[in-house]
């Protein structure tokens, strides 16, 4: 997680982006594999502010650009589903960190 936050702060300084959203996997996700490579962390960072409400309002299949220029996240939330999901991974309030 420390590397993720360091990457986010460097991104803010280098790009002068006024906001950032980080989708942080749980600590358990790293328990067996250790710190993930930088490119995987970049896929978990969006250079814009997105609240759960704004993510929920996006239509199924919409793409959101990440810090890794050739990768995006897809909205996979179905209209009737109260949860938000990206790339078929449910998102909850706690794993999203917004800097704005």
Biggest sheet character: 3 strands, antiparallel
Number of helices: 3
Rounded mean pLDDT is: 77
* CATH topology descriptor: FAS1 domain
Number of strands: 7
Distance between the termini: 19 Å
Task: Tell me the strand percentage band.
Answer: 15-25%
Shape descriptor reads: globular
Radius of gyration, CA atoms, in whole angstroms: 13 Å
Question: In terms of topology, how is this protein built?
Answer:
Elements: H1 2-15, E1 20-23, H2 38-43, E2 45-46, H3 52-57, E3 63-65, E4 72-74, E5 84-86, E6 89-91, E7 96-99
Task: Put the structure in a nutshell.
By secondary structure, this protein is α+β, with helices and mostly antiparallel strands. Helices cover 26% and strands 22% of the residues.
Would you write up a description of this structure?
With 100 residues, this protein is of the alpha+beta class. The protein has one domain: FAS1 domain, CATH 2.30.180.10. 26% of the residues lie in helices and 22% in strands. The protein has three helices and seven strands, in the order H-E-H-E-H-E-E-E-E-E. The strands form three sheets. A three-stranded antiparallel sheet has the order 2-1-7. It has a two-stranded antiparallel ribbon with strand order 3-4. The chain is globular. The mean pLDDT is 77.
